[in-house]
Amino acid sequence: MEERYDFARLEEKWRRRWEEADLYRCVEDEERPKKYILVMFPYPSGPAHMGHVANYNLGDVLARYFRRRGMNVLHPMGWDGFGLPAENAAIRSGVHPSKYTWDNIALLKEGLQRLGYSYDWSRELATCDPEYYRWTQWFFLKFYERGLAYKALAWANWCPSCRTVLANEQVVGGRCERCDTLVEQKALPQWFLRITDYAERLLADMDQLSGWPESVLTMQRNWIGRSEGCEVTFRVKETGQEIPIFTTRPDTLWGVTFFLLAPEHPLVDELTEGTPYREGVQAFRERLKGVSAIERTSLEAEKDGVFLGAHAVNPVNGEEVPIWTANFVLMEYGTGAVMAVPAHDQRDFEFARKFGLPIKVVIQPPGGDLRPEEMTEAYVDPGIMVHSGPFEGLDSEEGRTVRVPDYLEERGWGKRAVNYRLRDWLISRQRYWGVPIPIVYCSRCGMVPVPEEDLPVLLPEDVEFIFEGPSPLERSEEFRRTVCPRCGGEAERETDTMDTFVDSSWYYLRYASPRDKDRPFDPRAVRYWLPVDQYIGGIEHAIMHLLYSRFFTKVLKDLGMVDFDEPFTNLLCQGMVVMGGAKMSKSKGNVITPEGFIDSYGADTLRLFILFLGPPEADKEWNEAGIEGAHRFLHRVWRLVHRYLDILTFKTQPVPEDAEVLKRLSHLTHRTIKKVTEDIERFAFNTAIAAIMEFTNGLYREIEEYPDAFNTYEGHEAIRSLILLLAPFAPFITEELWEEVGGEFSVHQQPWPDYDPRLARSERITLVAQVDGKVRDRIEVDADVAEEEMERIALSSPKIRKNLEGREIARVVVVPGKLVNIVTR
RNA sequence: GCCGAAGUGGCGGAAUGGGUAGACGCGCUGGUCUCAAAAACCAGUGGGGUUUCCCCGUGCCGGUUCGAGUCCGGCCUUCGGCACCA
Question: Which of A267, A428, A613, A735 could form a disulfide with A191 if both were Cys (CB 3.0 to 4.6 A apart)?
């Protein structure tokens, strides 16, 4: 028997034993209920850091808990291997992205293994493994076949000095992070996935996501940004061209006094070609360089724009209004053109005031009389339509939703339309370290998809990494030159790679059958394991990753590959581990790694400490003060169990069966089982641990005073329950202690302890007596005290009577089993 | 700026359905043990006062209620996301 808590030795011992016993391997078993618990896989940026520990702790506790509740648990781990940092490393230090990534994966894996997470490592995957990314390419082809992947012009950050495309991250203050040159926007032909086709379903199916935090659903709903309104066609007076616009306020059509185009709108160039206005447009665009869309569209941003010398004709009244281009109009939203109604839209109002454009009131507030010259802001609320042709005097809400849309449709000037803020998903990246898009360009056949049997399109190893100029793939002759799969003639490969969010949009499916050579996943395995029962990940992924994964799942359902609509039934979004208020990241240089702490205190201590730091959803400021406390607690448990083992070794006095101490032990045990069980179910791991600490403190008090009481059924039950309850949180020490108390290997395979509600219930409660809502006395009473009895006890309390002297009782509020409040006049 | 969160002792946090604010832990103070120290154990620990008791107190201002950390309205600060970081 080991007397000292030698965490290093025992953690090493059990790590090996678990591996030998293949304790966490899982296989499909139709006889048992399954539970798929998944924590978002990491980008391998280096060794494990505290953020990873905080993340993966949560999944591991749940996996261990549900296994012991008899569930067949799938708890896998893998690597989101592609990404920008690997390529930056290659440029900076000449390390090949592949080596950089696989080295980091090895480091990170070692860190996670030291922490004792119960993954089925046989299912490990990496998105940068050709065996994985061939299927990412395969999915691209399926999307392409269904018309869900298409190529179109799109804007990219362009550094004119480096002649390269920049990620948003590489643009700092509107300038290139390397050479400080003002970043421009450049239009490139790029690949998109048609997520907007699924906007309606992404919204509608949210009613299946009752297991998601409401805040995440709200963010997604707002991101999709569905709005109902009308599409109305204006005509350019000078050229006769038709320009459709989208508006949610058709009731304000009679108040249009000018017309706006996004700066990137092709008509801006067309209309000003060879006119004196061209110069103004150039100057305006120059001012927009280096200004992000967020800044441009900020409500507080200074309005900017220029007149284009042309006019738009309003279909409803034939009025000709000037066409301008303005900074706050986005090409990506709607049609890139808007009708401007300065009286009833704040941004239009500010623009009109700045450039002296007319303001025309067409909605009067109820009982009000707005005059354009007196207005200080736009009137955006409903009211009565005025100066609006046939709709004079109509309620604007009726005009907006029914009458005006009908009117436009009857005359063919416009139609009801739904617009989304959501844009199609731009997946093209002009980078090396990603999945090559499996498309070939043939001079004869045009764009040709790579046949399935030719997948994967492998990334060439031998390429050059420099920051400037075209991407390594584009410069690689060897990669680009190929033959057309259709005609066999000379052809060129697509050199764009895919956004890494594509890789992570389907990895949860691959875990079901990670070694399948013939398909992305085995439908039978997926039918058994999917959807993910509990998904866990950072709140920073609330929108994009989760939305893209939902989209992928829906497309897969349409392809007949899965039979569910939503990939993640329940979602837990945890906060981040922050350092000095900022999230831990290598680029900020504030990464704390677990290794040193594991060396000094052991993995159990670190796991326990991080869980104890606070609730999962909250951000956690890293502060190592307190880790000693977690270690001290494990030491206390260790010593308590050994004290108990000592008692068993020596003969002890028999304890009478009705002894109060035995009742107290039972109550303490069952109360704790109840509390810990309920807390785990609601992810309150910090309070579950606090309850186990209280349990330990309570047992200490009893064992000091009544050691004999521990050589009884109640004593054995208490000690064994302590070990069983602590096991999901501190898997190593509990395995050792379990063995020492004669438990059967493994503690992690023991059924979760049950509690007896009668024993968990307290017999006495504290009755709180208040006068006018202020606590004046606390009286201990039987738990099953009647309401009238509570009132009588409170009123007879000397402290209460003293407080009531000279006052008249107005009423008495009794909260059964809790409190009596005496209200005076 | 827009969308979504969060603000409670010296610190991390607890209070699960409107009902005892501060569980549990850290830190600190005092004590026991020791030649001494460490460890361990015991006691105390929101602020204030006229200290058997009373007052104040959950970011700020206001409201609802017998009763508000919790609900409502308005603000402030911090964090996350904003479509090429993942």
Answer: A428
